[in-house]
Each structure stands twice: as C-alpha cells, then as structure tokens.
Amino acid sequence: MTGTIGYMAPECHRKGKASKESDVYSFGVVALEMACGRRSIEPKYDENEASLVAWVWEAYENQRLFDLVDKKLSKDFDFKEMECLLIVGLWCAHPIDTVRPSIKQAMQVLNFDTALPNLLSKITIPMYDIPNIPILKTREAYSSHLSITVPR
C-alpha cells in the first residue's frame, strides 16, 4: 500500500488497500486544505492542531468553522460557498467510511444542486485494532517460527 500521510483514510491502515471511499476521504482533505490554506499535516502546530481533519472537526463541533478559513482571503469570500466547501470536506473526510458520500453526491452539494448534509455536531472517532507487537530491547533475543531459505 502506498499513500501520503494525512490523505490516507483511517481504514486504509487497517485494510491495507485503497477504495472508492478512501479516495473520497482524500478529496475531502484537499477541499479542507483549499478552505483553510494549510497542509493536511502540520508538525509545527500543537498536537490538537497538527491534523487538519481533526482540527476542522473540532472547530465544527464548537461552531467556529469560519475561524479556520485561510487568513490570506481577508474575509473576501462568499460565506455560503465557503461553508459548503468546509462541510463537504468534513463529510468526505468522515472517519467512518460508510458515512462518506459518493463523489457524485459531494459534487451535487458543491454545485448547490442538493442541500448540505446534516453532520453530527459531535463526532466519534472509531478505534481500530492495532496488533499487539512486542517492543524489543536492543539486547533482548527474539525468536520467530518463520524460516526463510535463501538460495546460494
């Protein structure tokens, strides 16, 4: 699996493959980048602001989405269009893949052919199973039941 951190949907780490839903997630991240004027991952920010998607979800939950709009725009934008871009970006970047729209549905909303979706005001981030991998100390022995035959 290849991909860029910050654009890969959460389930890609678990499933190990991309899907239509993970492509929609990436589209949502790009939409949020355009609206906010920053990259998907910003290590220079505090931990709660480093992930663009998490940062925008938090602002949405606190009803302060417009505080995140790119400052370079100097509030010189159509508020209805910006709200649409931010909401569709969040909808597409929803942490649960089955809640994400199809790209067709997202485009219909962006074109104002369909109403904005009703997103929950509080998002629950799913927890994915992470395999229990022992952390080895440098001098600790490790044995495996896997054997590899190397031809000479």
From TrEMBL:
InterPro entries linked: Kinase-like_dom_sf (IPR011009), L-type_Lectin-RKs (IPR050528), Prot_kinase_dom (IPR000719)
Cellular compartment(s): Cell membrane
Pfam families: Pkinase
Coiled-coil annotated spans: none
GO cellular component terms attached to this protein's record: plasma membrane
Membrane disposition: Single-pass type I membrane protein
Keywords for this protein: ATP-binding, Cell membrane, Glycoprotein, Lectin, Membrane, Nucleotide-binding, Receptor, Signal, Transmembrane, Transmembrane helix
SUPFAM superfamilies registered for this protein in UniProt: Protein kinase-like (PK-like)
Main location: membrane
Ranges where the Protein kinase domain occurs: 1-97
GO MF annotation, one: protein kinase activity
Keyword match Transmembrane: yes
An example Gene Ontology biological process: defense response to oomycetes
Family: In the N-terminal section; belongs to the leguminous lectin family.
UniProt-listed PANTHER family: PTHR27007
Name the UniProt record assigns to this protein: Protein kinase domain-containing protein
